[in-house]
Every structure is written in C-alpha cells, then in structure tokens.
C-alpha cells in the first residue's frame, strides 16, 4: 500500500503575514492611546481653568430672590466669595469689598482659600508636568500627573467641607441675616462657584483614574521597543 502523501500547507491568497498583522494592531493601539491621552490633557487644562474661576469669583454664596413687601428696610442682596463680598446697592454695578488683588481672603474663609490655592497649584503643576514627556517615559509622567490631580481633588474636597462650617461669620450675617449658622445659610443659598467646586472634585477623581489607567496600560500592553514610539506620538500630538 502506498502511504498517503501529506499535502503542503495551504497559503491563503491576500492574508497578511502575522508580523504585519501584529504591527497593524500595535499601530492602532498607539493611536488609541494617543487620542485618549490628548483628550485627558485637554480635560486637565479645562479643570485647571475651572479652578481659577472657582478661586476668584465672588459667587460661592448669594441671597435668594425674594419679594420685599415694603415693611421695614429691604434686606441686602448680593453674593459672597472667598476674597470679596458684593452687595447690589446701585444696580447694575454691585459694590464689592475685598478682592484677589489684595491677596487677603476674608478672615472667616482663610483656611478654605488656602486649600483651594493648594489645589490650584497642584493641578497647574500637573499641566506643566506634561513637558516631562520629552525626558521621562509616558507611564512615569502619567503617574506623576495622577498623584497631583488626586492631591488637587483632596484639597478641594476639604475646602468644600470647611466652607459651610465657616458660615457663622460677620460677613455672612451682614449678607444673609442673623439666622446664619454652621451649615445653615439663612436667607442665602449656595451659588454656581461652590457647585463648580463640587464638580471639580469629581473631575479630579476621573482625570486621576484615567491617568493611572493610561500609565498601567502602556506598561502592560506595549512591548519594550514600542514605548519610545508611543512617547514620541504623544509629544507630537
């Protein structure tokens, strides 16, 4: 009996070699990392600008819109921030006391202003740390930025927690009435600057988590010889 002759392996016409297919997947992965990294950097810059607005705007607390019935003096109307109090005596131009130019926050909110300032420093330092892509590996830079953003979010969370505890102050009583107390705004309510600060805490947590994920993905999925390529692509974006 004749032994069956083994057939040669079939070659599929048009199928790319495994090396080319691996290189294609690697290129697509690098492009995805670059796109997510650019999005993360843009969101980090937006978060830094938001921190500046939160610090300088006198709109952490404001009076509620109420109708004065004409009995007794009209209650004051205005807003309050960390550095100044604005009362609407001559509408539409409010009369403000204090300001960021003096670098002196309101006495009752000094600790809150310091915490927001540290948070602002941390997030802008993370933005400046992006220049380290030229000198360090991308994973190291992402981890540095992640820890800085976690610090910014932690300081901002402490500031948002201490701010209502400081409402029992002369500035708050003059604007919001004698019913003001800790965590009780009296005739006032929180305004958009305080709400932006609360959203900033969530933003910092999301950005830090994304930075950690980007750092770990690069170390785990990219081969050693492609890390330099990824760093160059991130810098060119």
Automatic annotation (TrEMBL):
One GO CC term on file: plasma membrane
Residue stretches spanning the membrane: 38-60, 112-133, 145-164, 192-215
Pfam families: L_HMGIC_fpl (PF10242)
GO biological process: sensory perception of sound
Keyword Membrane: yes
N-terminal signal peptide: none
Membrane topology per record: Multi-pass membrane protein
Keywords for this protein: Membrane, Transmembrane, Transmembrane helix
Location, primary (coarse class): membrane
Localization, UniProt: Membrane
Designated name of the protein: LHFPL tetraspan subfamily member 4b
